[in-house]
Amino acid sequence: MSSKNLIVVGAGHLGCRAAEKWRQNYPNAQIYLKTHHDDPARTAKWKDLGYIPFTDASPGPAPTAPYVIFSAPPTNNDHYADVIGEAVKKHWNKSEEG
Fold first, then answer.
1. By C-alpha distance, which of 72, 81, 67 is closest to 4?
2. pTM of the model
3. β-pair partners for 92
4. Contacts of residue 65, Cβ cutoff 8 Å, sequence gap at least 6
5. For the sheet containing 31-34, what is the strand order?
6. For the segment 24-69, what is each residue's pLDDT rounded down to a tens digit?
7. How many other C-beta atoms can be found within 10 angstroms of the C-beta atom of residue 75?
8. Nearest-CA neighbor of 36 among 75, 68, 67?
C-alpha cells in the first residue's frame, strides 16, 4: 500500500480545508501543516486535531511526503515561483509514493 502522507505548504484557510478533505479520504495519513511563522495557539489546536505543524525554523530535518500542496499566496513576493520550487525540492519525496 502506498503512503498517502501529505504536506500542506501554506496552511491558511485554503490549506487547512485541503488538509481536512485529505483526512476524510485518507484517515491514516500523516498530514503536515507548514506556516511561515509559529503561532503557539494555532500549533496546539492543529496538534489536537491530529496534524503535524511545522515551520522552516522547526528543529530536525524538514519532513517529506509523496504529496505536497502549495497554497501560500504570492502576496508581495517577486520570487514566488522560486519559493514554490524550493518547497517542492525540500518536501516532495516521490519515492514514498509506492
1. 67
2. 0.89
3. 65
4. 3, 5, 6, 7, 30, 32, 91, 92, 93, 96
5. 52-54, 31-34, 6-9, 67-70
6. 999 999 999 999 889 999 999 999 999 999 998 999 999 999 999 9
7. 6
8. 75
Cell numbers that stand for 24 in this block = 476524510
Strand, helix or coil at 2? coil
User: What is the per-residue pLDDT across 65-86, written as a single tens digit (0 to 9) for each?
Assistant: 999 999 988 888 899 999 999 9
What one-letter code names the amino acid at 89?
Answer: K
DSSP sequence for 11-65: -SHHHHHHHHHHHHH-TT--EEEE-SS--HHHHHHHHHTT-EEE-TTSSSSPP-B
Say if residue 1's pLDDT is above 60.
Answer: no
Tell me the residue type at 83: V
